[in-house]
Amino acid sequence: MYAIVDIAGQQMKVEANHEYYVNRLHADEGSEVSFEEVLLIDEGGNIRVGKPRLEGARVRARITSHVKADKVLVFKKKKRKGYQKLNGHRQLLSKIKIEEIVLA
Length: 104
What we know:
It is a single chain. The protein is mainly beta. It has one domain (2-102). The protein has no helices and 10 strands. It has strands at residues 2-7, 10-15, 19-23, 32-35, 38-43, 46-49, 58-68, 72-78, 83-89, 92-102. Strands 2-1-5-6 form a 4-stranded antiparallel sheet, with no helix packed on it. Strands 3-10-7-4 form a 4-stranded antiparallel sheet, with no helix packed on it. A two-stranded antiparallel ribbon has the order 8-9. Strand 5 (38-43) and strand 6 form a beta hairpin. The two termini are 15 Å apart.
């Protein structure tokens, strides 16, 4: 059984008892979160599609940790002008574990 859920502006395919990295959620580590923006649920071949979302369906998850992604380096240069600029960025992520997919 899997579901397609809108989590923090990203659509993700999630399954129960799996862990995923999502954009930083504003909740404490160890707290439980619920996502009501369920777009699709597949129950062993029985597919339910929402218009635009399924009413009464939700996904329960627990935040296991808050982490930072690997550093992405942005390098800008203009040839023959002596201009160079190096900038780094680390995206803030939350690691969540999907506990249950609930369909009402």
